[in-house]
């Protein structure tokens, strides 16, 4: 049960993290997956269904770039809609985590 | 698990989806393996880091189901979305199932009643005047029409109920796909 909650929690913030990452610079799938996996200990595989969903929702667009080492890389670029979503989610998250921190602080 | 095992299991999990969706999703992971191995990681290391291929396949399935329901509102898309969402969370089904069964039962009962009313009405209108002597024509025809109307009404109530139910399920599924977003937004602005 606890594990399931953790997975759901991480999944919820995953979109926020991807948007944050892309708001700095465009990135390709493997890059996003490995950066997030080391950052928040998620299975790297979860990133791909998420990227597809964000693409359908118009939060990101893609373009292909030839790679010197392997198959051509699909880069993701954040759209204006994506930026708007990022700002609002960021505000929500900051408020939410501040509230949780405050309660945890009281408890200890 | 090596690369081939991972891809095979993932592919098996996607069985039944449109070919294009399958190829696209599989290509995502094929590319991931290629990139990771170019970076010097081993196949087993990469597949362990990716996570459970069955679970990933369920996630892809649920997303495609929801997307289809957004585009085409028909019974097959509804069934698709429902099963895909159910496949996503094994724990919640235990809570959800009794409720679902109950709602499905009510809708089914409504549909049955609708059919029955409709048939009785039709029989009354068509056979009634022939069998009953002397035939109270007007009364029989009016009663028949009334029953047919009631049947049609019950039928549409069942239909609306089924649609609302699917909406609720889709909403519920979205909640699982991203808690942060829908939990804080009113239901109407979801997509």
Notes on the protein architecture:
The complex is a heterodimer of chains A (108) and B (191). Chain A is an alpha+beta fold. Chain A has helices at residues 2-24, 29-40, 47-56, 80-107; strands at residues 27-28, 60-65, 73-78. Chain A has a three-stranded antiparallel β-sheet. In chain A, α1 packs across α4 (80-107). Chain A is elongated, with a radius of gyration of 16 Å. The model of chain A has no long low-confidence stretch (mean pLDDT 86). Chain B has 191 residues and is an all-alpha fold. Chain B starts with a helix and ends in a 7-residue tail after the last helix. Classes of the chains: A alpha+beta (108), B mainly alpha (191). Chains A and B meet through α1, α2, α3 and α4 of A and α2, α4 and α9 of B.
Q: Can you give keywords for this protein?
A:
heterodimer; A: alpha+beta; three-stranded antiparallel beta sheet; 4 helices; 13% strand; B: 191 residues; mainly alpha; 2 domains; rod-shaped; disordered C terminus
């Amino acid at each position: 049960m606890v594990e399931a909650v953790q997975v759901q929690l991480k999944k919820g913030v995953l979109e926020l993290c991807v948007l944050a990452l892309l708001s700095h610079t465009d990135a390709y799938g493997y890059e996003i997956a490995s950066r997030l996996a080391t950052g928040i200990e998620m299975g790297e595989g979860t990133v791909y269904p998420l990227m597809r969903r964000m693409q359908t929702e118009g939060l990101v667009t893609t373009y292909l770039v030839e790679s010197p080492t392997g198959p051509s890389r699909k880069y993701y670029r954040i759209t204006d809609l994506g930026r708007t979503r990022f700002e609002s989610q960021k505000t929500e998250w900051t408020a939410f985590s501040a509230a949780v921190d405050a309660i945890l602080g009281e408890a200890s | 698990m090596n690369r081939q095992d991972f891809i095979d299991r993932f592919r098996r999990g996607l069985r039944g989806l449109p070919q294009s969706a399958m190829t696209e999703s599989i290509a995502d992971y094929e590319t991931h393996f290629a990139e990771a191995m170019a970076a010097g990681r081993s196949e087993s290391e990469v597949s362990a880091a990716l996570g459970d291929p069955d679970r990933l396949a369920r996630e892809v399935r649920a997303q495609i189901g929801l997307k289809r329901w957004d585009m085409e509102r028909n019974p097959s898309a509804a069934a698709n979305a429902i099963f895909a969402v159910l496949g996503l969370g094994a724990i919640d089904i235990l809570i959800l199932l009794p409720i679902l069964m109950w709602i499905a039962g009510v809708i089914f009962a409504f549909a049955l009643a609708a059919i029955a009313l409709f048939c009785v009405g039709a029989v009354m209108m068509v056979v009634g005047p022939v069998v009953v002597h002397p035939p109270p024509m007007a009364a029989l025809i009016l009663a028949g029409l009334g029953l047919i109307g009631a049947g049609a009404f019950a039928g549409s109530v069942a239909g609306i109920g089924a649609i609302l139910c699917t909406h609720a399920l889709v909403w519920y599924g979205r909640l699982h796909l991203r808690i942060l977003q829908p939990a804080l937004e009113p239901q109407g602005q979801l997509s």
